[in-house]
Amino acid sequence: MMKTNSKLKLRAANGDEVAGGPEEKTQPPGNLQERVYQQMRSALIAGHYVPGQSFTIRSLAAQFDTSVIPVRDALNRLVAERALEQAASSRSISVPRMSRAKFQEILKIRIALEPMITVIAVPHVTEEDIDAMNAATQDMSREFKAAQTRRFLAANQAFHFRLYRAAGTTVLMPIIESLWVQAGPYIHQVTYSAQGGEAAESHHLEILRSLRRGDAIGAAEAVRKDLADAADTILKNGEFVE
């Protein structure tokens, strides 16, 4: 019999709890699998897991307080998306270690797509969007100074995704999210240097200035610089496989 709980729980690499959804009563297996999938995917995007970190289906089922079936199905989806990998000789599933070449390939695609979606988004960005993005930038500055890496990364994701989702695309946004899922486990390394956090804040402020002017090209260029500078920090500090 499947166990249920009022709130699903998942722990990140540092043992902190990844927030679950709203309180619910017993859920159908399909809904539970989707919830596990979405929470793990969001945690990967936000950099809550590190390259090489491994899980077992049973350990995750215990953390989610559910049976192994919805966890197994959710993990299979993430493996199919190359967000996780499973060793042929083991039941253990892990966050992939990435080669420097693969990271650079993902970066090239992101630098092509994220400025593109920014150009599409700018005419649709509202004052409410700008206010939310400004608040996220302030959160980033505060959390970086407080050495709160997870909160810094969550604010960074909130900033970018608020902008990109304003584009209203049903094709481009899922591709970008997939790239973030793959790169997410490395993004925490942006915080390894003071310059990384300061550069991110500077680029975000320039994006906001461009949005207020309605300058799509300026906003797209600031996004490109933001990605490039973050990648430079990661490439200098990241642990890649050859």
Explain this structure.
- The protein has 242 residues and is mainly α.
- Helix content is 64%, strand content 4%.
- The protein has two domains: 10-94, Arc Repressor Mutant, subunit A, CATH 1.10.10.10; 100-237, GntR ligand-binding domain-like (Four Helix Bundle (Hemerythrin (Met), subunit A), Up-down Bundle).
- The strands form two sheets. The chain has a three-stranded antiparallel sheet with strand order 3-5-4. A two-stranded antiparallel ribbon has the order 1-2.
- Helix 1 packs across helix 3, helix 4 (100-121) packs across helix 7 and helix 4 (100-121) packs antiparallel against helix 9.
- Residues 1-26 have low confidence and may be disordered.
